[in-house]
Amino acid sequence: MNECHNGGTMIWDPEKQYLCQCLECYEGSRCENVLAKPLGMANGIISNNQINASSQWGGHVHPNRGRLNMTGAWSSNEKDLNQWFQVDFERSTLVTGISTQGRSNLNQFVKRYTVSFSQAGDNFQIYTQEGTVKEFKGNDDRNSTVHQMVIPHISARFIRVQPTAWYGHISMRVEFYGCF
């Protein structure tokens, strides 16, 4: 019987009876904990060409300005429910959390959003919890960081954040957490 969780493998150890060898995204004595590291928006591991959006409001608020803690933000050209901010992780990635901020230099921020995801970048599936579309709480101001856990976790190559309510204008900065 395998006592290890999340695909971990039991290894016999004469002193402890067994140990768990965890898959890359898990840790703990029984592989019960998911690693939740920043995936690279703020520190630049995710390159500018991996970031895309439905539109942008001019040259100084392009999608690569949508990185957590960066000056400015990504701002959409339109103010409607068809706007989205997308990241291509370039490989299947386990997403366990999302942090957002508003636009640092103007009072604009996303108050609520949904998330969709895809493996190939064409057919996106909306994220649900218990069969209901999950609407995440975003920001109440432009500079605070709001962190949301994603449970169940998302396993995908592409992820989209789709604003559903905003203040002033659709403007945001984002970081994703999880494991590649």
Describe the overall structure.
Helix content is 0%, strand content 48%. The protein is an all-beta fold and 180 residues long. Strands 5, 6, 7, 8, 9, 10, 13, 14 and 15 form a 9-stranded antiparallel β-sheet that branches. A two-stranded antiparallel ribbon has the order 1-2. A hairpin with a 3-residue loop joins β1 (9-13) and β2 (17-21). The model has no long low-confidence stretch (mean pLDDT 95).
What key phrases describe this protein's structure?
about 180 residues; mainly beta; 9-stranded antiparallel beta sheet; 15 strands; about 0% helix
The helix fraction, in percent, is: under 10%
Rough outline: elongated
The biggest sheet amounts to:
9 strands, antiparallel
> Which band does the percent of strand residues land in?
over 45%
Quick structural gist:
This protein has 180 residues and is mainly β.
SSE diagram, text form:
Blueprint: E1 9-13, E2 17-21, E3 26-27, E4 33-34, E5 37-38, E6 51-53, E7 74-75, E8 85-101, E9 109-118, E10 125-126, E11 128-129, E12 132-133, E13 136-137, E14 146-167, E15 171-179
Antiparallel strand pairs: 1-2, 3-4, 5-15, 6-8, 7-15, 8-14, 8-15, 9-10, 9-13, 9-14, 11-12
